[in-house]
Amino acid sequence: MRKLFLTLSLVACCLLAHAQMLQSPDKHFKLQFKLSGQGVPTYQLTYKNIPVIKPSTMGIETKDVASMLDGFTITDTQTSTFDESWSPVLGEQKNIRNHYNELLVTLTQKEQKDRYIKVRFRLFNDGLGFRYEFPAQQNLNYFIIKEEKTQFALHGDHKAFWLPGDYDTQEYSTMTTNLSEVRGKMKEAVTPNASQKPFSPTGLQTPLMMKSKDGLYINIHEAALVDYSTMHLNLDDKNMILESFLTPDAVGDKGYMQTPHHSPWRTIIVSDKATDILASKLVLNLNEPTKFKDVSWIKPIKYVGVWWEMITGKSTWAYTDVESIQLGVTDYTKLKPNGKHAANTAHVKEYIDFAAEHKLDAVLVEGWNVGWEDWFGKTKDYVFDFVTPYPDFDVKELHRYAASKGIKMMMHHETSSSVRNYERHLDTAYKFMVEHGYNSVKNGYVGNIIPRGEYHYGQWLNNHYLYAITKAADYKIMVNAHEAVRPTGLNRTYPNLLANESARGTEYESFGGNNADHTTILPFTRLVGGPMDYTPGIFQTKISAYNPDNDSFVHTTLVKQLALYVTMYSPLQMAADLPETYNKHLDAFQFIKDVAVDWDDSYMLEAEPGDYITIARKAKGKNEWYIGAITDEHARTATIKFDYLPKGKTYVATIYADGKAASYDKNPQSYAISKVLVNSKSVLKQALASGGGAAISIKEEVSAETKKLKKI
Predict the structure, then answer these.
(1) Could you give the CA distance from residue 548 to residue 545 in angstroms, rounded to a whole number?
(2) Residue 545 dihedral angles phi and psi, to the nearest 5°
(3) Which of 249, 211, 234, 228 lies closest to 164 in space, CA to CA?
(4) By CB distance 3.0 to 4.6 Å, which of 6, 247, 378, 531 could disulfide with 457?
């Protein structure tokens, strides 16, 4: 028996010395993993026999122990298949299939006293996820990461939709160039921001969207980012190799690890159809199921807020014009109000009235709490206490008034990036919210991080963001995090994380404007990781109408703003403009009132990153569908199909369309609303203006009038 065992072991060793192969369930993807002659882990990936990732090295460079880069032997491999369907608490579809083939490879460094790690690959029908795992063992307990050395060797100079690699901000305009042009365009790409730290002339952020010359759409990102530094990509533009580049801490270290531990998943989503990238749930599937037993308190939210008028400069967050404030010392009752403070009781009641009249869910109020006079740029530690209102903001009265109207109040916690101050106050702030009827919070991290020297996307800050989310769950509070790390699908595990900003949002339309193609790119990049609080719905596109000193304008038509509620998925959607403006366009506002924010299913009808997107979605639990179609600066005709509708039934489609002379820069408020009859065989050719769009609601409406409508 002993002889037989040795023979089998020798055979196994011979097999393990060769490449390990893995196919996706549909066999379109093929992964090969093997070791180089120096024991360096390498992998490569093909899709439909087209190279996606050429042989690329893997490993972890460490600071305090021998590095995990080479000298490995394969000592075990395991393969398995997994197939399930699961239902997100909130999402783009009611049921998500999680189907993959897995390869788990154990790599041992004999010269390091048989120290070992594992690499786990999961190959789906839409791409690959893999991660490093560090089991607890005698020779590996604690270690410090100097750098993760994961390569993505590309098969060509791809067209890329990229942001500059930066440890502190994602709020850049997307550049669209070939990868070989990144170095020459980097200076132009790095525009001023409240906090920023670009790290390389060829550094890039994830999600990175690319298109190869042979027609493949390739997206590289990460999933389940927990207790680890955020991954950026550094481009070797001579060899077209991307390599992971982690965010450091204040002393330059890139991760403090205690086994057992593992890295986030590195994700590669691939297809020969752009719509498949939009439909992919790979990032979500690589996250763990929800940690919460009770999710009944987690609800989608459609809201208005005291926000846009401050963003445009019409009003202020601050109560006074005094430039130096000390909490607990400054007596606001003795200071002269500036007369432009928006978060006052009477004005907030107007927003509550508007929300109640139009059956919205909540009202956000920014600038309600003391400290805004010197909140930014002073690197103050004790900048806010999150519980003390300004003299003109009556918390109890507004709670009573909102409750009487059936409206929830949404809390605002700007931290000014004084993270340790926020953590000191977190329990008190959440208790205050519960006592006053707030069940959701928008928090922000504007400016340089305190403790000084830390970055927004380092391991310490990523742990803080998750701490704020899990602590909020203790109080049944939903979170909308701004300026936090870009999402990696953690909303599956922690569904009270409704949305993040984590990109250049609508606010920049008041800061010079977003490019007309901006929202035709974000669903392929930022939204791959999770929902965004983009804050659409701006009807008055000339900012000077609110602030004569601001000549910015919104780079979309009014109708495109409607379409964004469908194309920019989020269970948290703001009607961001002012009530008085909506009251001038109540016919168009009807779409915002009607459109769902939680869905049974989604259908990606047509798309090309940077050019156009058309998406249809079915409202959760209703026989209603909503369609959004958007284009960049070029007018086009969208082809809209309805084959997802139940066969044999006819529905009324209300079409919100750009006017014939509409354009985002010259005639943005021109629109037309019409109704037609549609069924599953209908096809609509819909004109979209420059920077424009179309929004369609589809409902069962049976009446003598609807029967007379035109059929398409």
Answers:
(1) 6
(2) -65, -25
(3) 234
(4) 247
Contact between residue 442 and residue 369 where contact means Cβ atoms under 8 Å apart? no
Which of 582, 615, 617 has its CA nearest to residue 600? 617
C-alpha distances out from residue 614 to 90, 211, 275, 519, 636, Å:
21, 19, 9, 12, 12
Beta strand pairing call for 115-124 and 256-258:
unpaired
Residue 708, judged by CB atoms within 10 A of its CB (0-12, 13-18, 19+), counts as exposed
Point out which residues pair with 712 in neighbouring strands: none
In this predicted structure, the answer to whether residue 5 has a pLDDT above a threshold of 50 is: no
Report how far Cα 338 is from the mean position of its chain's Cα atoms.
Answer: 36
Give the model confidence (pLDDT) of 496-553 as tens digits. 999 999 999 999 999 999 999 999 999 999 999 999 999 999 999 999 999 999 999 9
Angle subtended at Cα 68 by Cα 62 and Cα 74, rounded to the nearest 5 degrees: 170
Pick from 129, 108, 110: which is nearest to 120 by CA? 129
* 159, 178 contact by CB (below 8 A): yes
pTM recorded for the entire structure: 0.97
Tokens, residue 344: 């006052």
CA distance 351 to 362: 9
Annotated active-site residue 507? The verdict is yes
Q: Which two tokens stand for residue 62?
A: 């460490």
> What is the side-by-side order of every strand in the sheet holding 151-154?
20-23, 29-35, 41-47, 50-57, 151-154, 241-246, 231-236, 203-204
Angstrom distances, CA of residue 233 to CA of 69, 156, 283: 18, 16, 18
Which residue bears the tokens 């709020």? 171
Rounded to whole angstroms, the maximal C-alpha distance in the chain is 93
Which helix H or strand E contains 409, and what residues bound it? Answer: strand 408-414
Among the listed residues 507, 606, 633, 700, the single catalytic one is 507
CA dist 533 → 202, 301, 336, 616, 699 (Å): 29, 11, 35, 20, 27
Say which residue the tokens 């000191």 belong to: 424
What residue type is assigned to position 660 of the chain?
A: K
Q: At what angle do helices 459-474 and 419-435 cross, to 10 degrees?
A: 10
Q: Which of 421, 316, 430, 409 is nearest to 364 (CA)?
A: 409
Locate tokens 């809390």: which residue?
A: 411
Sign of CA dihedral 51, 126, 300, 610: positive
Q: In what order do the strands lie in the sheet with 693-699?
A: 599-608, 612-619, 625-631, 693-699, 651-658, 671-678
Tokens of 119: 């690499």
